[in-house]
Each structure stands twice: as C-alpha cells, then as structure tokens.
C-alpha cells in the first residue's frame, strides 16, 4: 500500500520568492526521476514566519527513494538549491522526518 511521508526543511531568510521560482521551473529530468522512484503527490508548503518548509509525498511500496541521492540529476538539483536552504556538511538539504499523529479520510 502506498505510504505518505512528511518532512521539514529550512529555507534561508529572504529566499521564498527564489525557492518558488526554481520549483516553478523544476527540471523535466528531475520530475521524471522522482516519478521513476515511485514518488507522487509531492507538495511543499512554507511557513513564512519560521522559513520552515513542510513537505509531503506519496511513495509506492516498491519505491526507489533511497537511491535518488546517488543520481546525477538529484545531485545537480541539490547543488542548485544549496545557496537558498540549510544544508548538512554532506551537501544535502537538512531534512527532519515528521511523525504522523492524526489522519482523517
């Protein structure tokens, strides 16, 4: 059964317009890589008071999300976004997994 996951990232102050601009023009090859990895229904929300980005996505049972960081297109995207977000010392977005505490259909 597909699984919905959520996580939090942090945008650098003053970068909301640029973040939206870059995602409005997301590369077709990255979109394709995400779909091939079994990812769908991907949304990112911004809390402008804290600069926290809240993301949700649905991943298939046989998803390949774990392999995405090793793909060339994903690494290029992360390099492209590094100047506007908080990153780890491994040059990856700082991602905090979130725990679901309530769901209603």
UniProtKB/TrEMBL annotation:
Organism per entry: Mesorhizobium retamae
Protein name stated in the entry: L-rhamnose mutarotase
Key words of the record: Carbohydrate metabolism, Cytoplasm, Isomerase, Rhamnose metabolism
Residues of the active site: 23 (proton donor)
Keyword Membrane: no
Annotated HAMAP family: L_rham_rotase
Database matches in InterPro entries: Dimeric_a/b-barrel, L-rhamnose_mutarotase, Rham/fucose_mutarotase
Chain residues that bind substrate: 19, 42, 77-78
PANTHER family to which the protein is assigned, alphabetical: L-RHAMNOSE MUTAROTASE
């Amino acid at each position: 059964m597909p699984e919905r996951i959520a996580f939090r990232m942090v945008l650098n102050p003053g970068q909301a317009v640029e973040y939206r601009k870059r995602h409005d023009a997301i590369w077709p090859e990255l979109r394709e890589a995400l779909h091939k990895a079994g990812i769908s229904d991907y949304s990112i929300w911004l809390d402008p008071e804290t600069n926290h980005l809240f993301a949700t996505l649905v991943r298939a049972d046989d998803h390949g999300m774990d392999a995405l960081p090793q793909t060339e297109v994903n690494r290029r995207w992360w390099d492209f976004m590094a100047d506007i977000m908080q990153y780890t010392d491994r040059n990856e977005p700082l991602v905090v997994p979130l725990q679901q505490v309530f769901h209603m259909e």
